[in-house]
Design brief:
This protein has 142 residues and is of the alpha+beta class. The chain contains two helices and six strands; from the N terminus they run E-E-E-H-E-E-E-H. It has a single domain, classed as Aldehyde oxidase/xanthine dehydrogenase, molybdopterin binding domain (Aldehyde Oxidoreductase, domain 4).
Length: 142
């Protein structure tokens, strides 16, 4: 679980993972609660949270930019691998009813996903992730 606040919007996410036989992990589901004031357009709020989870998950799992001799190693999508459809978990969004003024929903869904996944890995394996990308292909088992 992880909680984040920005743009006067509060987002909590819980990541559910499964461990693979090869010593890795897969993010199966992310449950997201968002308090963004009055929900002017719930469908857009849901879409922004789902997209934020996908974008944040890409960064959390594999979006590393590395340098060799001061030159970026990733030149195109053959060497920089974005999140794949097969990596996208089920995302469940719950909008908290509110009478507060509407707030922003564009970015707040992104920051909590990496720590939520890292916390799920720790809970499942006892190993703490301290760097991004998390490298779920090699989390090992407790």
């Amino acid at each position: 679980m992880a909680v984040h606040e920005s743009f006067h919007t509060f987002v909590a996410q819980v990541a559910e993972i499964s461990l693979t036989k090869s010593g890795g992990a897969k993010v199966e589901r992310v449950v997201c609660a968002v308090d963004c004031g009055i929900a002017v357009n719930p469908d857009i709020i849901k879409a922004q949270m789902e997209g934020g989870v996908g974008f944040g998950l890409g960064a959390a799992l594999r979006d590393a930019i590395t340098l060799t001799g001061g030159v970026v190693d990733q030149a195109n999508f053959d060497t920089y691998e974005p999140l794949r459809m097969s990596d996208m978990p089920k995302v469940e969004v719950h909008i908290v009813p509110s009478t507060e003024q509407p707030t922003g929903v564009g970015e707040p869904g992104v920051p909590p996903v990496a720590p939520a996944v890292a916390n799920a890995v720790f809970k499942a394996t006892g190993k703490q992730a301290r760097e991004l990308p998390l490298g779920l292909d090699k989390v090992g088992h407790a």
